[in-house]
Amino acid sequence: MGKIRQRGKIWYVDYRVKGQRVRKRIGSSKKLAELALKDIEVKLAKNELGFLPKDSDLDRLFQEFPKYCKSHHAPSTIKRYKAILDNFKRYLLRYPHITKISHLNVKFFDDYIGFRKGEGALPKTINIEIQTIKLMFNLAIKWGYCRDNPLDQIKLLKVPKKIHPRFLNADECEKLLNACDEWLYSIFYTFLQTGMRKSELENLTWNDVDFKRRKIKVLFKDDWSPKTSEREIPINDALLNLLQKHKSETWTRKCQYVFQRNGHKIEPNYLRKRLIPLTRKCGFPDVTKIHTLRHTFASHLVMNGVDLPTVKKLLGHSDIATTMIYSHLSQEHVEKAVEKLKL
To answer: Mean pLDDT for the chain?
Structure first.
């Protein structure tokens, strides 16, 4: 229990925190001193007094955050968060004296941003890292490891908006496919005819291909989840013939995956490693991501008059705003169509 004491005309509150005596000057009012003491006692009871901050070791947070991710996020997200956490921990090695959450401040994270810039990380990449680390400290507050998030005052970097996504024109598609071996041709052709995400194709099994209904089903699995929701993608004649031929040639291997490598699921970065040398060879080295094939599928649909809501459904976008990046192609297509009129 604390006490109020008077020295001359001034009242003080006198109490202890973890055995340490604390005395605070209140003023000339005894009534105010009594109220202040009650308020302090309530705060002590709630563990909210500034002398008793919630403060955990960073190592403890680094152990708990991956556990949380494992039970709340998809494998691809877990992998991305791990890489971000590894970068953050690597930077922390420069400051061996920083061991607790309370040791971190705005200056530390401003310097971290400069560190990642110096390594060549793009503003968009750095922003993703900052948002992920901020998420981790928000969880730390929720778990009672700290009171405040040290990144609350950190502003994200400005990222130039890329208005028009890169896609392959018809000639580039032909060059790319002609440069592929038979196995890679089947994969890239499927991307171009379905607009599937890379992880969707990597996790596609023969059970997901309905030859009778001519549909590819993007479904939840025990070890993988679609980015948004389940959906069906129609199979056109050309793709149907390719998949039937591909199944007749590979089914004897008894692998559940439509596109497999050495009897197993394709490794996450393998297709990109195969794409990059091919696009360099074909003369468009700026194409370095498998996602460009998805953009190509959507772009050619729009240029051929398919409405954006239908494109949204085929791509599996959760928000039409995401699909709107292709809207300019629709307008350009309309303008070019009018130019062809000869009356």
So the answer is: 90
Residue 177 lies in a domain: yes
131 and 66 co-located in one domain: yes
Identify the residue whose tokens are 């091919």.
Answer: 278
Looking at the structure, do residues 36 and 72 belong to the same domain, yes or no?
no
Query: Which stretches in the chain have pLDDT values below 70?
Result: 1, 17-18, 46-54, 162-163, 251-253, 332-343
| Structural domain contains residue 302 | yes
Asked if residues 188 and 177 have their Cβ atoms less than 8 Å apart, the reply is: yes
SS3 label, residue 256: coil
- Domain with 78, as residue range(s), is 58-142
Measured CA to CA, the distance from residue 296 to residue 277 in angstroms comes to 19
- Same domain as 328, residue 289: yes
Chain mean position to CA 289: 16
Q: Are residues 220 and 319 in the same domain?
A: yes
- Dihedral Cα 206, 210, 211, 212, nearest 10 deg: 150
Same-domain pairing of 191 and 304: yes
Model pLDDT, residue 276: 97
What φ, ψ does residue 205 adopt, rounded to 5°?
Answer: -110, 165
Q: Are 55 and 100 in contact (CB under 8 A)?
A: yes
Judged by DSSP in three states, 92 sits in helix
pLDDT at 51: 47
Q: What angle do CA 267, 74, 147 make, to 5 degrees?
A: 130
Q: To 10 degrees, what angle do helices 123-142 and 75-92 make?
A: 90
Q: Is 147 inside any structural domain?
A: no
Burial of 69 (0-12, 13-18, 19+ CB in 10 A): buried
Residue position matching structure tokens 């389940």? 230
Strand partners, 11: 6, 27
